[in-house]
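Lab notebook, bench 4. The sequencing result for the construct came back, and we need a structural model before the next group meeting so we can plan mutations. Quick request posted to the team channel:

Model the 3D structure of this chain.
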Amino acid sequence: MTTAQPTAGSLARARQRESLGRFWQQYRTHRAGVFGLAGLVLIAVIALAAPLLVGSDVQSVTKAPGSPLEAPSGEFPLGTDQFGRSLLGLLVWGARISLTVGLLAAALSVAIGTLVGIIAGHFGGWFATVLMRITDWFLVMPTLVLAIVLATVLDHSIWTVILAIGVTSWPTTARLVRAQTIAVESRPYIERARALGGGHGHVMTRHVLPNVVPLVLTQTTLGISDAILTEATLAFLGLGDPTLISWGGMLQDAREAGAVSSGHWWYLAPPGIAIALVALAFTLCGRAVEAVLNPKLGVGR
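Done. Here's the predicted structure in token form:
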């Protein structure tokens, strides 16, 4: 009886599973990264289960169950807002928007930066010089200022916020990916690939891209926390979607209700703490991923 020979696809999948296994074994040795990942999983589960946990009526102003600005109590553990809505329910529901904006904006930013960096590093010459000067211009301009300008000019929606953050925060990724691309293309196997007839597309997608993926993954993880903070800032400035509940929008509502001057701390503290904890969790995960993929950095555990 003859045994079936493994196909190229099955071998590739086996290598991927082995690589993922090695990655997880190294990742779980970083206690801070594990704590950050556990926190993110918990927050993501709560956000996905928000309709079951608090219901969609928690956003309704006309169906508010409490009185305006009630202090924390047994019925309302985090108190109520100026409309009498439960702040705990709003906090749970707002996690959906804040995480969605953070993930999509960071993905858009990293995608633009990766594309610009690989093209500039691969082709070089005057074309790369022009791309890098454009990158430098975005790099020296304050990201928040550019995002505010875009969010002001365009319609106030969640997609505008994602676009504003994504198209203004890519330069750092572009510079890092360009440097990595130049380093990869100086290796001998790239010359062999070109000698065998590999074109620009083949070299960039088959050889350069797989080698910059670890860097891209790290930048994505670290960029999510920045995107969440930027979204909170835009919402706090009144540039977010007023029809959606987000943590930054809750801070804006608290400011408009005079929570600072009137001493209603329970209106300000929950969304602010939630933003800080999620940003910290993503940062811990990003540092752990960076330490696993690039041990030479010597990031502490």
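The mean pLDDT is 84.
Will bring this to the meeting.
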